[in-house]
Amino acid sequence: MLIPLHGIASRHDLPLPFSFVVTGAALALVLSFVVLFLAWRSPRFVAPGGVTLGALGRAVDSPVLRWTARLVILTVYLWAGLALLAGPDLLTNPIFGFIFVWMWVGVVPLSIALGPFWRETNPLRTIHLGLCALARVDLDQGLARLGRRVGVWPAAAALFASAGWN
User: Fold this and answer.
1) What is the pLDDT of residue 59?
2) Can you give the pTM of this predicted structure?
């Protein structure tokens, strides 16, 4: 008999009704955003610390390397999306390895070694940068200014909405 070492085997093994679990997850998400909104009014990590790397730092921060990394990561995500949408519905589908190995294990060591790796290579940001370049929109200005009161509520609403997807 195999005992799952990470959580549970499936949602049917939950010791609570599934609706309680989903409601609890949604409440935890909303509560965390409310606490962040009320308790974190100003940036706390304005200036990153660390040691200057000289030539190595300039090489890693070069626009050529950044765009190369962005395009490689975008290609990998497109491949993963293709595997998800058109691949076989089997455990041998590479999407499972991609999610668990890359997203859970790969991004953290890269971020420790290289800094904000995900912020620089996020495929959605890459697409956004490309669309802004095509439309000749200034990244700092954007198409429209949201009011200060809007704050983090669009992100909270999107996460809340996605918590209900099964």
Assistant:
1) 83
2) 0.59
